[in-house]
Specification:
Oligomer: single chain
Strand order of the largest sheet: 2-3-4-5-1-6-9-8-7
Mean pLDDT: 85
Strand content: 25-35%
Shape: globular
Helix content: 10-25%
Distance between the termini: 18 Å
Length: about 270
């Protein structure tokens, strides 16, 4: 497993695999949960989610449904699995190396397959939340590539945001979404992750008067193949390389050097 020497300031990382829905997943959860409990993920929570669906036609009736997902985390609430009828994710706020989260999600996927017998895999994705914060005499503009600095005026902006979408490969079809949220105040999760219960590490706690940038990078592949851990692993590492290239494009060389010096002088996450 990796050592915490990455120059990339990741405060949350998730690896996710979507698969053909297993409508009877709830029946298998006790067996799966027991296996993860033995591996240290002993905190269990069932999460109901209400969904509204419609066929999109004028005058049609909408129907409400309830879906379930299950979270299994370690006692420190820093890492864990999320299982649903159509996906598995491993997420952590103690990111050390990409190999770690890829190892855990594939190991978890094998466990689910052993119990459930999964069919097709449909989507693989890696998503990193990076906390870009100035140190000492730096300003946040010293850390960011010019394209992310935003409009400059004689007024202090209260909030800035941007989003970019790229296709990064054709076989399999891979896409990268990079979002930025620049603001004053405490570091937090973006809106779609607000329900997360993992603790953010103390190293990323910021003063409410401090400015920071949340750099949210999601790199994913749309796939369609039967259960194949080796193929999934290869795709995950290709996604990881593209994700790190996107991070390097978003920040300046002085920023990378500063983070590298803070992490022990090694570029554990330079792109291959």
């Amino acid at each position: 497993m990796g050592q915490h020497q990455s120059p990339i300031p990741v405060y949350y990382a998730v690896a996710q695999v979507r698969f053909s829905p297993v409508q009877a997943m709830a029946k298998y959860v006790p067996d799966i949960q027991d296996q993860w409990r033995r591996q240290g993920f002993s905190t269990f929570q069932e999460i109901p989610k209400h969904q509204m669906t419609t066929d999109g036609l004028k005058g049609s009736n909408a129907s409400a449904g309830l879906t379930l997902s299950w979270q299994m985390t370690n006692q420190q609430k820093t890492s864990g699995f999320i299982l649903a009828p159509d996906f598995l994710a491993f997420h952590t706020t103690t990111y050390e190396a990409s190999e770690d989260i890829i190892f855990h999600v594939l190991k978890g996927l094998k466990l689910v397959d052993d119990v459930v017998a999964l069919a097709n895999l449909n989507r693989l994705g890696l998503r990193f939340l990076n906390a870009v914060m100035p140190y000492h005499t730096q300003t946040i503009d010293d850390l960011l590539a010019p394209g992310l600095r935003g409009l400059c005026m004689d007024r202090q902006p209260l909030y800035r945001a941007s989003e970019s979408f790229f296709q990064t490969g054709e076989d399999p079809a891979t896409f990268l979404v990079a979002r930025t949220h620049r603001r004053f105040g405490e570091l937090s999760y973006p809106p779609d992750l607000q329900s997360l219960t993992l603790y953010i590490q103390d190293a990323f706690v910021v003063n409410e008067n401090s400015e920071h940038l949340l750099l949210d990078i999601d790199h994913f592949a749309r796939v369609s193949f039967g259960f194949d851990l080796k193929k999934a692993e290869e795709i995950f590492f290709n996604l990881d390389g593209g994700l790190k290239n996107a991070f390097k494009a978003a920040v300046t060389d002085p920023a990378l050097k500063a983070w590298c010096s803070l992490s022990g002088g090694t570029h554990a996450h330079e792109s291959p």
